[in-house]
């Protein structure tokens, strides 16, 4: 799922910059089967929100560290090489 979200994120951001909140909406439209709102991320009894949003965050961190995307203000952008 991580790779699918990363690829989808680069695809969406190549159309225009987006906030994380907007990216969540667009990813849910694009990949409804992977964006299951009924599954919570729970670690040691503590709830951390939707599991799929945690995977999206991991994909954002991966892409940022790979220097493929960057956060400018409150919007994510694809970095042009």
Largest sheet, described in full? 2 strands, antiparallel
Described by the principal axes of the CA atoms, the overall outline is globular
Number of helices: 3
In what order do the strands lie side by side in the largest sheet? 1-2
Class inferred from helices and paired strands:
alpha+beta
Order of helices and strands: HHEEHEE
Poorly predicted segments: none
- How many beta-strand elements? 4
Instruction: Indicate the proportion of strand residues.
Output: 15-25%
What's the average pLDDT? Answer: 93
The end-to-end span amounts to 26 Å
List the helices and strands and how they pair.
Layout: H1 2-15, H2 20-30, E1 40-43, E2 46-50, H3 51-65, E3 69-72, E4 75-78
Antiparallel strand pairs: 1-2, 3-4
Helix pairs in contact: 1-2, 1-3
Jot down its keywords:
two-stranded antiparallel ribbon, 81 residues, alpha+beta, 4 strands
Walkthrough of the structure:
By secondary structure, this protein is α+β, with helices and mostly antiparallel strands. Helix content is 49%, strand content 21%. The chain is built from three helices and four strands. Strands 1-2 form a two-stranded antiparallel ribbon. The chain has a two-stranded antiparallel sheet with strand order 3-4. Strand 3 (69-72) and strand 4 form a beta hairpin. Helix 1 (2-15) crosses helix 2 and helix 1 packs across helix 3. The model has no long low-confidence stretch (mean pLDDT 93).
């Amino acid at each position: 799922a991580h790779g699918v979200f990363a690829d989808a994120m680069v695809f969406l951001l190549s159309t225009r910059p987006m906030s994380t909140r907007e990216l969540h909406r667009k990813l849910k439209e694009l990949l409804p089967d992977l964006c299951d709102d009924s599954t919570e991320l729970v670690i040691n009894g503590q709830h951390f929100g939707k599991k799929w949003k945690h995977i999206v965050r991991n994909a954002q961190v991966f892409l940022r560290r790979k220097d493929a995307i960057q956060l400018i203000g409150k919007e994510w952008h694809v970095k042009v090489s």
